[in-house]
Design a protein that fits this description.
The protein has one domain: Tetracycline Repressor, domain 2, CATH 1.10.357. The chain is built from 10 helices and no strands. The longest helix has 28 residues. The protein is elongated, with a radius of gyration of 19 Å.
């Protein structure tokens, strides 16, 4: 039952917002008593924390499954972005923006984890792109990792609309890729930008 509550809460929080969804809303949606939820979660913040952990785990699994497909490094980044666009398409307000605004303590915990995983993911992608001749060999990899995650987190923290955040993320991805790309990389980037499902 605990896992079912977390999964339902996660879906509702992402769709309608962390602040607006109450324990009553979740209980009503699941056709259970609020008392049942409080049996597992003493307060809403605990449920939010568990829900964000689940989202974090799902994101990590998605990235791993895309990396396992062995796309080239640029195609890989665009597929990850497309998948996240689908995952968050029902959200009106950026989940990260909401967390930072209404639940800053939970947000800090999530951010620490996300930065570590993002660093690892970006590092693997950049090293792969260099090996494939799509990114320049003379890159300072650690600096480019910092540039990109600072850009992405800044967009999500400060952009209320999820739709606007996704649009800015696409521009950030193009900016990041152009800064690193060889002529072959630019050709691959232009190909990805022609995809009709990009926005």
């Amino acid at each position: 039952m605990k896992d079912k509550i977390i999964t339902k809460a996660k879906d509702m929080f992402l769709k309608l917002g962390f602040k607006s969804i109450t324990m009553d809303d979740i209980a009503c949606e699941m056709c259970i008593s609020k008392k049942t939820i409080y049996k597992y979660f003493a307060h809403k913040e605990l449920l939010i924390e568990e829900s964000t952990q689940l989202v974090h785990k799902e994101i990590h699994q998605i990235i791993n499954s895309i990396v396992a497909k062995n796309h080239n490094s640029i195609e890989e980044n665009f597929e990850i972005r497309r998948t996240f666009k689908e995952m968050f398409k029902t959200s009106d307000t950026s989940p990260i923006y909401q967390l930072k605004k209404h639940y800053p303590e939970i947000y800090k915990k999530v951010l620490t984890q996300q930065i570590q995983e993002c660093e690892s993911c970006f590092r693997q992608n950049i090293e792969k792109g260099i090996a494939q001749g799509l990114y320049r060999k003379d890159l300072n990899v650690e600096n480019y990792i910092k540039f990109y995650y600072t850009l992405i987190f800044s967009i999500n923290e400060n952009t209320q609309s999820e739709k606007e955040a996704l649009k800015l993320e696409l521009e950030a991805l193009e900016y990041h890729t152009r800064a690193m790309a060889t002529p072959s990389g630019i050709a691959e980037l232009e190909k990805q930008l022609q995809n009709p499902n990009i926005l």
